[in-house]
Design a protein that fits this description.
The complex is a heterodimer of chains A (about 375) and B (about 130).
Chain A (H helix, E strand, L loop, with lengths): L3 E8 L10 H16 L6 E5 L3 H4 L5 H8 L6 E5 L5 H14 L6 E7 L7 H8 L14 H16 L7 H11 L13 H5 L3 E3 L2 E2 L9 E9 L11 E10 L14 H14 L8 E3 L5 H10 L8 H6 L16 H4 L4 H17 L12 E8 L4 E9 L2
Parallel strand pairs in A: 2-3, 2-4, 9-10
Antiparallel strand pairs in A: 1-7, 1-8, 4-7, 5-6, 8-11, 10-11
Chain B lengths: L2 H6 L1 H6 L1 E4 L6 E2 L15 E4 L3 E10 L12 E8 L4 E5 L13 E11 L6 E9 L5
Antiparallel strand pairs in B: 1-2, 1-3, 4-5, 4-7, 5-6, 7-8
The chains are: A alpha/beta (about 375), B mainly beta (about 130).
């Protein structure tokens, strides 16, 4: 196995891009990443995307995006793992480079959500869950998370407002990120009075639907200094799975796949949770932030919310999360999100995160979740000395 | 879901028929042919009692396509007496009368009316358990 480094990153602003289609968004991110790396092409492309078939009537994104980016002929394929599609594409790129098959790989996550609104988009997102035994009963993706959140509050005696700091932190951090969708702070009062979506989940517990694309360029670590950018090493990479349905989990309140993939990544990197300087976790809903912190070893079971209440997740806390806004405030273009997380971690490790910069960040972890915990991809990135 | 898919699920939707693992004794619903605990084949039919209690619940106000006419409705995770949890709608109860731990029982109700050319599908929902007085 060869070491793998990231030598270029690119992203589009996250938002409602009425003027740009799926392929244009992908091109913008790919082109920025190639330019960042100082190269004109690559040997392979992995495209992370969830909803193109449902929302854009478009499958077969590998060939489409590669050709549209001027790379006709290279190996290119779409990778799908619901909201985990983006980091799953990076994982495939990692395997391709580490194995020695390819030397230059582009991983791009792209999602175009706002071409449809309402019930069709809600139904498309819900396909991350079990069609026969969950969706047939009218549950939505928000609803599945609401079932988890209510049980969590019941079992651990937690109030709804105890989750507020997850969203307040995300919004505060997004102010400094020019690519973020919601660059405005929110208050505890805003959180408490937000519209209910699916009780107990309200609008400010939830990440927004959005369009966006993000890309990274990978190459073998031993070649990384031949390129113009400041390389960042991928020192841990793991993808693990759990059952699709919440009702099939051994413990619905435990993200087993998060624990498994984080542990593998820690072992590969030779680090522990205490060594991590920042954690871009999958805060699709506030409840997922609490469950992720617990499963990844940053908090005890049932106590993830306390890290938020104590301010430990803020930029100056023990484990800063969502340092550039997270899914909540940067926005959650589902199949692109996992790549955004990695792009942001790279910017932090290069010291290029601007107003969002975590001082002296050396080791960053990203974790992207497909569904409500069925596919979980963890990456640990390290700055070059 | 089309006609063949609805037909394939008739035993589960209408009678809560799952499986039991003859190796480790685990009761399985939905059926999955391989025991999730011991990974042995588990294709022995087991009919669940339909009795359970509410593990968690939520009310859906923004329904997915195909469920608009029913909103708002309450969906629960129901922990069956025999062990498994199922995802299902609650019926014959107001959302503010639902609580975690409440005893419920299975009833057969219309799940979805696909109108025009589609299938009208029926299946399990759960209601507060009736008690003889």
């Amino acid at each position: 196995m060869r070491g793998v480094s990231i030598i270029g990153v690119g992203q589009t602003p996250v938002g409602e891009h009425w003027d740009r289609s799926l392929r244009h968004l992908a091109y913008e991110a790919v082109s920025a990443a190639l330019q960042d790396a100082g190269i004109e092409g690559a040997h392979a492309m992995y495209v992370g995307n969830m909803l193109s078939g449902e929302i854009s009537n478009q499958s077969h994104l590998g060939a489409l995006i590669a050709d549209f980016c001027g790379l006709r002929g290279i190996e290119a394929v779409k990778i799908e793992a619901a909201c985990g599609s983006g980091a799953a594409a990076v994982r495939m790129g990692y395997l391709a480079v580490a194995s020695g098959v390819h030397d230059l790989v582009i991983c791009v996550g792209v999602e175009k959500m706002t071409d449809d609104v309402g019930g069709k988009l809600t139904a498309a997102l819900a396909q991350a869950a079990d069609a026969e035994y969950e969706l047939a009963h009218g549950i939505t993706f928000v609803g599945l998370n609401a079932l988890l959140m209510r049980r969590y509050m019941y079992e651990y005696g937690v109030r709804h407002e105890d989750f507020a700091e997850f969203s307040i932190n995300a919004h505060a951090n997004a102010v400094g990120n020019s690519y973020a969708m919601f660059r405005r702070p929110i208050t505890l009062e805003d959180f408490k009075h937000a519209d209910m979506i699916c009780d107990p989940i309200n609008l400010l517990d939830s990440s927004p639907m959005a369009d966006g694309a993000a890309a990274v360029v990978l190459c073998p670590t031993e070649q990384a200094h031949a390129f113009k950018g400041k390389p960042v090493r991928i020192v841990g990479s793991a993808l693990t799975t759990d059952c699709l349905s919440i009702h099939d989990r051994r413990d619905p309140l435990w993200l087993q796949a998060a624990e498994d993939s984080a542990r593998r990544a820690y072992v590969q990197a030779g680090v522990t949770p205490q060594d991590i300087d920042l954690f871009e976790l999958h805060d699709a809903f506030t409840i997922m932030s609490a469950l992720s912190l617990e499963a990844c070893g940053f908090a005890e079971r049932g106590k993830g919310w306390q890290l938020a209440v104590e301010g430990q997740i803020r930029p100056d806390g023990r484990i800063p999360i969502c340092t550039m806004g997270g899914l909540k405030a940067r926005g959650h273009p589902v199949g692109a999100t996992g790549v955004y997380q990695i792009v942001e971690a790279v910017l932090q490790l290069r010291g290029e995160a601007g107003a969002c910069q975590i001082p002296n960040a050396r080791l960053a972890m990203t974790q992207n979740i497909g569904g409500s915990g069925a596919t979980i991809i963890t990456h640990i990135l390290e700055a070059e000395e | 879901m089309g006609i063949p898919g609805t037909w394939r699920l008739r035993n589960q939707r209408l009678a809560l028929i799952g499986e039991v693992c003859h190796t480790c004794g685990k009761k399985i619903f939905p059926p999955r042919d391989v025991c999730p605990d011991c990974a042995r084949e588990a294709q022995h039919v087991f009919r669940f009692s339909g009795r359970g209690e509410i593990y968690s619940f939520t009310t859906v106000f923004n329904p997915p396509a195909g469920f608009e006419e029913y909103a708002p409705y309450t969906v629960a995770l129901v922990k069956l007496e025999e062990g498994p949890i199922v995802t299902a709608q609650l019926t014959d109860v107001e959302p503010d009368q639902v609580a975690i731990g409440q005893p419920v029982e299975m009833v057969t109700r219309k799940l979805q009316d696909e109108s025009h050319a589609g299938v009208i599908s029926y299946g399990y929902k759960f209601r507060p358990r009736m008690q003889a007085t």
